[in-house]
Amino acid sequence: MTTSQQTDPLIGRLIDGRYEVRSRIARGGMATVYVATDRRLQRRVAIKIMHGHLSDDQSFTNRFVQEARSAARLANPHVVSVFDQGQDGDMAYLVMEYLPGITLRELLRDHGPLTPQQVVDIMDAVLTGLAAAHRAGIVHRDVKPENVLLADDGRIKISDFGLARAASANTATGQALLGTIAYLSPELVTRGIADTRSDIYALGIMMYEMLTGDQPYKGEQPMQIAYQHANDSVPRPSARVPNIPDELDDLVLWSTERDPDERPADAQEMLDRLHEVEAELGYSLTAVPMQHTAVLSPTTETTAFERTALTTSPTRTRTTDPLGEIIQSTGATKKLTQTVERRRRKGLWLFTAIVLLCALVGGTGWYFGTGPGSLIQIPDSIVGSSPKEATAALEDLGLIVATGEEYSLEIPKGTVSSSDPGAGEAVHKNSTVTINLSLGPKPETLPSLAGTPIDEAKSTVEGLGLKTGDVSYQFSGDIARDGVIAASIGDQDVTKGGDTFQGETVTFLVSVGSVPALAGLAQDAAEKTLTDADLAVGDVSQKFSDTVPRGNVIEAHYDTPLRPGDSVALVVSKGQDLVQVPNVVGMTVNAAKQMLQKYDFKVAVDSNIPEKFWDDVIDDLFAVDATDPAAGKMLKRGSTVTITANL
């Protein structure tokens, strides 16, 4: 046991009161695999425990559970069996059968390229297991040598369905491409979409690597490798390693076509072709048992291949089983060789079965070709046609027509919007096809949106199947910032709600808050305030003010409604309107009055002359003695200046 295993806190722990952890096998990015003892059934198992820091991430937990569900659906000798799955506190675990041995990756790393026969043996087992997954509607999505197990007892199994998805889902991976970059199909790289043909591509890359000892594409960065998968064609393996049979070259090229439609549809189709290649190359023939003819000295240093050559008789009818020998040289037993030979003998009875099937084809050809069993494709042309036209078209094909109704945004009311089964699908004669007539867009009632935050309003609108249109903005003292001032559908005001139809477009007028207060601010501060509020500074005028200091804004003028980008005019204070009192002492009263009134002053006369003697003539005779305020004083325009005239 290594130091890291000695310090592993899970070693010796009892999981869920049942599984006693013995030692660690491997550690990956998502989980660690341990050997454990099932105390209840007293058997050795492998237990896969998800890393603790991933347990809070629901997506990782879902993938972990998905692995258990995907593998548990498969009952195939070439798929690692799943016994149990559960949760012990915050620790998610998966219990699988324990397979002592090595992985295909370890085999390639230790021995380099495999012989064509070894490649066929491994591909036969892997394709058999993967074909079972594809028949169950499961796409593995992470086929690579690390997930192919070569057990000590000769079994070959595929494992790690942590990335598996339903084959019909055909969905993108979402945040990032899943799977090892060296085995990703072009459609996964370019569109993030995987189906059974993506697994076939990964198998083709793996087969290339087994034949040549290397992957077809390399690069310093993962994206360089991904680019080559998306844009280049995989070369023939024989271009790197001569003497590889053409049949295996062709199988690699077929399975790694960039266009998914050009590849085998699934693992079963590729397996069928592999069996044909196996027979063509003579690998399905029964071999003469090995005869041990030499004994090595304990001191002799030889490689695994050399030991095999020394203990194998040259009298076999074909090449000795190299796969069995290599695995045996890494600690496997003779049982693997027996398993391989049994698999090859399948070729004989498979050939017999094919002959029988061919005989049946002739008898059933009529039934499925032109008889009652023939399939009819529902035409695309019925969508958008009238009910009468669609009914006639389907009845002419020998189908029974029923009608239904559904709301539709695209198809005009009263015409066919869809069918069940759908257009393009194949059905038997005399099957019933339901044509759904469009009711037009579905009616919806829109709630009041006045004052609602715009994000919430958009969610409400889109949740009802309506579309979000243009959003414009306006200053408002009544509606808070980002609140809806008004909403409309065309000319219809729906601010306070109303009846609508799905697919209609709602436009919004949204508040940016109140117009900024400018009165009393210094001119430069007022201009900055306008700029910060996304408003332009318009005309700036000045006038006297008794209350606003010189240089400060008296008032602002703008058009309503005011929108971002509009101009605001400013009126700036010139301060108080003060005038200097002129010197009128010595002037006649009339002359003094005229002078003071010229400066916009009001004039009051203080005199000791009796009023009964006072007239315009006297005004022109008497001179001014003094003024109040005195000459030179600054006085607000329009103020009263008192002049004094005496006898």
What is the C-alpha radius of gyration, as a whole number of Å?
Answer: 47 Å
Low-confidence stretches: 168-179, 285-322, 327-341
Span of the ends, CA to CA? 133 Å
The second-level CATH architecture of the largest domain is: Orthogonal Bundle
Order of strands across the main sheet: 1-2-3-4-6-5
Shape: elongated
CATH topology of the largest domain: Transferase(Phosphotransferase), domain 1
SS content category: alpha+beta
Largest sheet: 6 strands, antiparallel
Mean pLDDT: 80
CATH homology group of the largest domain: Transferase(Phosphotransferase) domain 1
Q: What's the tally of helices?
A: 17
- What proportion of the residues form beta strands (DSSP E)? 15-25%
The structural domain count equals 6
**Portion in helices:** 25-40%
Number of strands: 30
CATH class annotation of the largest domain: Mainly Alpha
Structural notes for this entry:
This protein is an alpha+beta fold. The chain folds into 6 domains: 3-97, 2-Layer Sandwich (Phosphorylase Kinase, domain 1), CATH 3.30.200; 101-371, Transferase(Phosphotransferase), domain 1 (Orthogonal Bundle), CATH 1.10.510; 375-438, Trypsin Inhibitor V, Chain A (2-Layer Sandwich); 443-511, Trypsin Inhibitor V, Chain A; 523-573, Trypsin Inhibitor V, Chain A, CATH 3.30.10; 578-645, Trypsin Inhibitor V, Chain A, CATH 3.30.10. The chain has 17 helices and 30 strands. The strands form 10 sheets. Strands 1-2-3-4-6-5 form a 6-stranded antiparallel sheet, covered by helices on one side. β3 and β4 (43-50) form a beta hairpin. α4 packs antiparallel against α9 (267-280) and α10 (304-310) crosses α11. The longest helix has 35 residues, at 335-369.
